[in-house]
Amino acid sequence: QVQLVESGGGLVQPGGSLRLSCAASTNIFSVYAMAWYRQAPGKQRDLVARITSDGNTNYADSVKGRFTISRDNAKNTVYLQMNSLKPEDTAVYYCRADYGRSGHWGQGTQVTVSS
Fold first, then answer.
1. pLDDT of 111 higher than 90
2. How many CA atoms lie within 13 A of 29 on its CB side?
3. Cα gap 49→75, rounded to integer Å
4. What tens digit of pLDDT does each residue of 45-102 get?
5. Which of 17, 74, 80, 97 is the most exposed place for a label (fewest CB within 10 A)?
């Protein structure tokens, strides 16, 4: 069982930046595709960004040009750099790891964008 622990959430003003981290408890982290999802109150959980084991990335249209996903396989960690944050980015952000038919979720970290 892979455990994922997110950190880095918090309260930030519009236009500000945050960097989320997700540390994985596995020694085969490099084979996993990693992703960030978010869920706002009363809404479904949506994909924000994904990075494959090869380093290929894709993003939701709403965050393209503002968010960057990256991974450090030596540290078993995936990151989400979030710039130019907007109030509509407010949500709980979840980390996910996928390999074959195996999928794992983190517990989530709250991001609030407000003045």
1. yes
2. 18
3. 19
4. 999 999 999 999 999 999 999 999 999 999 999 999 999 999 999 999 999 999 988 8
5. 74
Q: How far is CA 22 from the centre of its chain?
A: 7
Pairing assessment for the beta strands 10-12 and 109-113 based on DSSP bridges: parallel
What single-letter amino acid sits at 113? V
Q: Residue 108 gets which letter from DSSP?
A: -
- The beta-strand segments (E) located in 1-115 are 4-7, 10-12, 18-24, 33-39, 46-51, 57-59, 67-72, 77-82, 91-99, 102-105, 109-113
Q: Which pLDDT belongs to residue 47? A: 98
**3-class secondary-structure state, position 27:** coil
